[in-house]
Queue: 2 jobs
Job 1
Amino acid sequence: MADRLARMHTAEHILSAIMRIYYAAPRNLELHLNEKKTKCDYEPAVPIDEAAIQRIESMVNDEIRKDHAVSDFTISREDAEKRGFDLWKVPPDTDEIRIVKIGELDAQPCSGRHVGRTAEIGVFRIISHDIRDSGRLRIRFKVVDAGEERRKA
Ligand SMILES: [Zn+2]
């Protein structure tokens, strides 16, 4: 089993892809990741309610279960810019950009560690969320083993 941080980190890519595709939230504005839970901030252009939170969780799990291959490749900064990758988190002095792909769902610059296939993530669970007056949505999540969930059910 892949280590928990790699699992959580890969889940964050999928969550951010879902937020971008379905809720017009182009970026994860703030990310804090540790072994227990993680905190992600988005500015969705689409209103978010409780039902949306449920949908987000289940869409992330649907993508995990598709067992996408996670792969990476390296391109020059110039190529990355031409191809429209979002380089806002990449340090300005980095010339070689590593792009991490989650199947055909997502491709983002990233230097972190990931699982090899999305099914290794297990089950994605949103622990809590809040919406600020500014419209910023904060999501805290964890990943659990699929077997662990079944035992509790
Ligand atoms: Zn990553």
Job 2
Amino acid sequence: MTLRIEYLIAGTGPAAMMHCLHLQESGAEVLMAGTGMYGQLKPVMYDEIGQPVNLLPIFPVIESDLWNKMDPHENSVNQLTLKKINHREFSLPTNGSQKNYCRYLIENERNFDIPYILSYKQFGDLIFDHQLTELQKKLTRNYNSGQPKFFKAGFVNGLSPYYRYLKSHEPYPVIQEEIKSIDISNKIAFTKGGAIRYEHLIFTEPLPKLYEYTRIRKTFNLIHSGAKFLIFYCGKNLPENHLWYCCDIRSNIYRTFVPQKNLIVVQLSKNSWNSNPEKVGTELQKLLSLEDALEHLDTKTFHGCYPLDVTDYDSKNELFLDLKRHNFHLSGRFSEWRYIDLHEVDFNVTSKNNAHLKQIVTFD
Ligand SMILES: Cc1cc2nc3c(=O)[nH]c(=O)nc-3n(C[C@H](O)[C@H](O)[C@H](O)COP(=O)(O)OP(=O)(O)OC[C@H]3O[C@@H](n4cnc5c(N)ncnc54)[C@H](O)[C@@H]3O)c2cc1C
């Protein structure tokens, strides 16, 4: 069976869904392909809580249009509470004059100690081994001009605001099949069930999948980092919507947030991924001065959270340009391999052509 569509979107995460809405708004026929929905934003269900919960607080550092499209009455609920706790004396190597990310911090940040500690806790030794160009760019874009221009983060009744926004637009046109291969020159994607002929393809899956689906050969390496979370249940109500960063270099806890009043999520320091959850629970209890012991509910590991660098930017740019010539657009944090937040994704990537779109899904 062959399907024809003007816009095919590879992936069903938030970037894919937002492209889908954007294209539909401009009258385009669009289809997403992939299994599961919401990507990393997918909510999880815990019996103790009784309703699905998003574990990720998604926050725009600068104000986004999308945020303003959300429920205005609840904007005030989502102020970011940035608590810097236990900032103690520390000593980290700087690896001499070698060009790496920690050098960048020392040379560019007047008060580099907190970013230095937090980066080390988030990415571990990578900050000594690489320049982490994408992280540098993110800092320059969002922070170096002063403090972050906008602090909004957290959850609305256990839902990430992005998730809430996307959920309110269900259902999406989706074929629940993974793409197996793509013929870029002839503009055909193949799934287990058949072929999809497209005019434009928006690829939101992680960049390594591109090599798997196509005949493109790898010309640069990707440097990235993951995140590990421990999820705890607390018998007493916790202050919702808070987000704390722990600045103690010796602590196992990098940051922690409360999506719902009985649930607390800990992102572990990179060097503490093997910590015993009960120990971390006790540490957390002390850190937040909680009376009740915390019960460890769950552990979640995401291996690809942060795209941090590539070994050859010229090759990357060349590849992206070449793909564009075939109406093949890469879009999203993991596809573009840029450390961008959702509100920074270019959702106008295909809109120039939209005015005259009239696409019909047909079967051969
Ligand atoms: C702790 C944490 C905090 C974050 N904070 C923010 C934040 O503040 N702001 C923000 O904008 N973002 C944040 N993110 C990132 C957030 O997850 C992404 O912004 C969002 O999920 C990106 O959407 P996406 O559609 O581009 O990618 P994804 O959600 O990853 O979806 C991509 C698509 O690719 C598919 N896919 C993934 N891996 C594979 C594979 N191996 N094979 C086939 N298909 C695959 C997925 O199923 C999905 O369909 C955070 C992430 C973490 C872990």
